[in-house]
Amino acid sequence: SSESRRQKAESRGRGCRLIMRKRTKAREYALQILYQLDVTRAQAQQVLQDFWTVHPAPSDVRSFASQVVQGTMQHADEINQLIVRHADNWNIARMAVVDRNVLRLATYELLYCDDIPPKVAINEAIELGKRYSTQNSGAFINGILDKIMNRAPAGVAVPPVAVARAAEGPAPEPEGEADAPPDDVPDGAQPSASSA
After folding, report:
1. What are the residues facing 96 on neighbouring strands?
2. ∠ CA(96), CA(102), CA(105), 5° rounding?
3. DSSP secondary-structure letter at 171?
4. Distance CA 114, CA 161 (A)
5. pLDDT per residue over 68-100, tens digit each?
6. For residue 174, what are the CA distances in angstroms to 99, 133, 178?
7. pTM for the whole thing?
8. What is the DSSP letter of 96?
């Protein structure tokens, strides 16, 4: 009956939203861990172990966050090269710590997570930037990630999934200028100390 089809569709919708909320939470955790690794230069395994002791999470959230952190760290040189190549006139060390780590985790997802649509990876990164850095970070992050997704850089090997994703087109652009650098962080913003 049409009522049972409607109920099944609603149930599937709730399941998808639940998965998306869990991955959003996992990305927040991954950002916190990457931030800590960036600032402290500690060993990834120790930071992960300590983080999960202090922040218990469901196994699927923990698993996805750990995958993103470990993958981002494993491919850090390539990811940093891509970010620098596409961040016009920006040295990665001069970017806000939050912004560069959002860029790193999203670049990892774009290149290596073929189960995540590129627009989802970019939109989640934009929201992380807005939530934990500044309102202008969203546009800054979107501009760089859009370039990474759509251009195969010379001299840097790009995994096949990234080449295929480039054909899907750019993510929608949030309001503001696409390549605007992040402003100073307002009082009360979550971890966003800039490196000097």
Report:
1. 194
2. 140
3. P
4. 6
5. 999 999 999 999 999 999 998 888 999 999 999
6. 16, 15, 8
7. 0.70
8. B
